[in-house]
Design brief:
about 475 residues, alpha/beta, Aconitase, domain 3, five-stranded parallel beta sheet, four-stranded parallel beta sheet, about 30% helix, about 15% strand
Length: about 475
C-alpha cells in the first residue's frame, strides 16, 4: 500500500463520515469569521433556532471594510458600520471570541490567526474568505468557504466537502538576490496559469520553499488560490515550530514538546502519490510583476509583456481585452512605466517582515512626489512592532505614512480605493478589473519591488538598488 501525502494524513484524520460517491463530512478544528460573510450565517442560525455548536472553536475579527484612519471614531460608511456592529452583537450573543476594532489583537483574520498561535500544524481551518489558504503554511488543511457553509460550520463544526486531487509543486535550489516569496509564487502562477490548480490542493516543497521564513511561506500559500487551487500547504519543520513557540494560544512546556513530536509526523511519505507533480528551478526566478487582469499574467520586472505571436490563439481575445483595460500594448517593456499609487499591506504582505523589507529599502531615501503610498499593517500587533522597531519613523522620514490595520486597498470594500484610471503597484493578491476600486489598474509585486517603485516613481528592477 502506497504511503500518504501530508494532505491525506490531515484530511483522513478529520473525516467524520464518507457519503458513498459523494463528499466527506469533515470536522473543522478552527473556524475564523469576519464582518462580511458572517451576518447572513448568524441570521440563518437564528431562523432555525440553533446555537453555535462549539463557540470555543470560532474566532472573529473585523477586517475587510474597516477604515484605516481614525479607527477610534464611529465608522462613517453605513454598510461597513452595520456589518462591524452586527459581528460584535453576534459574537456577544453566541459566545464567540471577538478581537474587535482597537483591541490589541485585532487585524486581518489571516494575519492574527498565526500571530496568536491559533493556527497550528495538522489542523483543518476554514473561513468565509478565499485566502484562508494562508494558514496552510503551517502544515494545516485550510480553505475558504461560502456563507451557507459558514452557517453549516457554526451549527455543526463540520462541513460537507468533496476531496480535492493532489498536486506537489517543488522549487529547488537557491533564490537569487532580491527574489522574495512573493516573486516565487507570482512566477509559479505565471507558469501554471490562474486556472492551472483548479480541482487540486497543492503541497509546496523543495529546498527553496524550505528556505523561506514563515511569513514567506504564508505569502506562497495565500496565493495558491490565485492559481485556482482549493488551497496550499507546506510540511511543518523547525522553522514552523520556532515561529509557534511562546505564542498566546500555542501549547507550552511539556505540552509543546508533545505537540512537536506529533507535528513531526506531518509530511508526505516517500512513496506517496500525487495526481500531478511539477518542479521549478529557483535560479530561473527573478523579481516579478503582473501586467494584466489576473495574477497569472505576470513576468519578470526586467522583461516585457508578451507579443501577440507569443499568445495562444484561444487566449488572444482575453489577453487583448486585459491590456486594453491596463492601457498597455503587447510587447511593452515594463521598466520605466510611471506609477501613481503604491500599496503595501493585505493578508499576502502585511506582516512585520514585509514592513521591515520596505523600511530597509527606503531608509535614507525619499518617496517620489508622483507616488501616493499606503503602508497598511496587517494587525495591531504588527503596527505596534513597527513603532517599537523604528520602522514607522524610517517610513515617515522617507515621506511614507503607516495607516491603521485592515484589508484596506486590497479589495476596495472600504475608503481606501485607487481612483479610476490610476496605476498601482500593490503587494496584495488580486489584480482583477476594479479590484482596488472602479477603473483602478493594479500590478502585483513584492514589498521590495513596491518600495523601489515608490522611491523611483516608476517601475524599476529592485536589484539595481540593492
Amino acid at each position: 500500500m502506497a504511503g500518504k501525502t501530508l494532505f491525506d494524513k490531515i484530511w483522513d484524520a478529520h473525516v467524520v463520515s464518507q457519503i458513498d460517491g459523494g463528499p466527506s463530512v469533515l470536522y473543522i478544528d478552527k473556524h475564523l469569521i469576519h464582518e462580511v460573510t458572517s451576518p447572513q450565517a448568524f441570521t440563518g442560525l437564528e431562523k432555525r433556532g440553533l446555537k453555535v455548536f462549539r463557540p470555543q472553536n470560532t474566532v472573529a475579527t473585523p477586517d475587510h471594510n474597516v477604515p484605516t484612519v481614525d479607527q477610534h471614531l464611529p465608522i462613517k460608511d453605513q454598510l461597513s458600520a452595520f456589518q462591524v456592529n452586527k459581528l460584535t452583537e453576534n459574537c456577544e450573543k453566541y459566545g464567540v471570541t471577538l478581537y474587535g476594532l482597537n483591541h490589541p489583537s485585532q487585524g486581518i483574520v489571516h494575519v492574527i490567526g498565526p500571530q496568536l498561535g491559533i493556527t497550528q500544524p495538522g489542523m483543518t481551518m476554514v473561513c468565509g474568505d478565499s485566502h484562508t489558504s494562508t494558514h496552510g503554511a503551517f502544515g494545516s488543511v485550510a480553505f475558504g468557504i461560502g456563507t451557507s457553509e459558514v452557517e453549516m460550520v457554526l451549527a455543526t463544526q463540520c462541513i460537507l466537502q468533496p476531496k480535492p486531487k493532489k498536486m506537489r509543486i517543488s522549487v529547488e535550489g537557491e533564490l537569487g538576490r532580491g527574489v522574495t516569496a512573493k516573486d516565487v509564487v507570482l512566477y509559479i502562477i505565471s507558469k501554471v496559469t490562474a486556472s492551472g490548480g483548479t480541482g487540486y490542493f497543492i503541497e509546496f516543497a523543495g529546498s527553496a520553499i524550505r528556505s523561506l521564513s514563515m511569513e514567506g511561506r504564508m505569502t506562497v500559500c495565500n496565493m495558491s488560490i490565485e492559481m485556482g487551487a482549493r488551497g496550499g500547504l507546506i510540511a511543518p519543520d523547525e522553522t514552523t515550530f520556532e515561529y509557534i513557540k511562546g505564542r498566546e494560544f500555542a501549547p507550552n512546556g511539556a505540552d509543546f514538546d508533545a505537540a512537536i513530536e506529533k507535528w513531526k509526523q506531518l509530511y508526505s511519505d516517500g512513496d506517496s502519490e500525487f495526481d500531478l507533480e511539477i518542479t521549478y528551478d529557483a535560479a530561473d526566478i527573478e523579481p516579478m510583476i503582473t501586467y494584466g487582469t489576473n495574477p497569472g499574467m505576470g513576468t519578470k520586472v526586467s522583461g516585457a509583456i508578451p507579443t501577440n505571436g507569443e499568445i495562444q490563439e484561444s487566449n488572444k481575445k482575453s489577453f487583448l481585452k486585459s491590456l486594453d483595460y491596463m492601457h498597455f500594448n503587447p510587447g511593452d517593456k515594463l521598466i520605466g512605466k510611471d506609477i501613481d499609487f503604491v500599496f503595501v499591506g493585505s493578508c499576502t504582505n502585511g506582516r512585520i517582515e514585509d514592513l521591515r523589507e520596505v523600511a530597509n529599502f527606503v531608509k535614507g531615501k525619499r518617496k517620489a512626489d508622483n507616488i501616493t503610498a499606503w503602508i497598511v499593517p496587517g494587525s495591531k500587533a504588527v503596527e505596534k512592532q513597527a513603532h517599537e522597531e523604528g520602522i514607522t519613523k524610517i517610513l515617515e522620514e522617507a515621506g511614507f505614512k503607516l495607516r491603521q490595520p485592515g484589508c484596506s486597498a486590497c479589495l476596495a470594500m472600504n475608503d481606501d480605493k485607487i481612483p479610476e484610471g490610476k496605476l498601482a503597484v500593490s503587494t496584495s493578491n488580486r489584480n482583477f478589473e476594479g479590484r482596488q476600486g472602479p477603473g483602478a489598474r493594479t500590478m502585483l509585486a513584492s514589498p521590495l519591488t513596491a518600495a523601489a517603485v515608490a522611491v523611483a516613481g516608476k517601475i524599476v528592477d529592485p536589484r539595481d538598488f540593492i
